[in-house]
Amino acid sequence: MPKGRHKGKARHYLTEEEVRQKEEQDRREAEWRRKKNLADDDDDQDDDDDQDVDKKVDKRVDKDDDQGSDSDDDDDDDDIDEMFRKDKKKGIGALIEIENPNRVVKKNIKAQDADVNVQVELTRREREEIERQQKEVHYRKMHEKGLTEEARHDLARLALVRKQREEAAQRKMLEKKAQEVSAAKKK
């Protein structure tokens, strides 16, 4: 590729004013389409719904900024406010109320309400893990004392190795003495 020609362009960031102008332009186009009946009914309704939600969200933000100044509240505004107040759920979870008896809901407890003296029951896996760790510690202690089968076998092997090394060392000493005696006789 020649110099200076590469994929990608410099990033362009919009200012708030440009965003507002773009929204205004989109709104005008939507009105024009509505008048001329050029847009499909479905697309037009989707655009209107998106714009209505954006406007309602903007109204909600403005209300929060004014701190309690009440102006034209619609039922739709109340629905959106309720939706914002609820826990934000992904997908359609916010729209569907789940009635699953097996579902466990995490209950948050305040520190002042928490009971410190309550014994927490461990799960089976946690109990097994603790037992396994205790068995390992016990086995290590017994092994160090030489009371396990494995420790006995290890000690027996060590004794054999020591015996073999001692015998090898004695043989080397005898060979050296024999060489020294033979060297002394030659002189």
Describe the structure.
The protein has 187 residues and is an all-alpha fold. Helices cover 63% and strands 0% of the residues. The chain has five helices and no strands.
How would you describe this structure in keywords?
mainly alpha
| Beta-strand content estimate | under 5%
Low-confidence stretches: 67-73
Q: What average pLDDT do the residues reach? A: 76
> Helix segment count?
5
Write the layout of secondary structure elements.
Layout: H1 16-36, H2 41-66, H3 75-85, H4 124-145, H5 149-186
Helix pairs in contact: 1-2, 2-3
Summarize the structure.
With 187 residues, this protein is mostly helical. It has helices at residues 16-36, 41-66, 75-85, 124-145, 149-186.
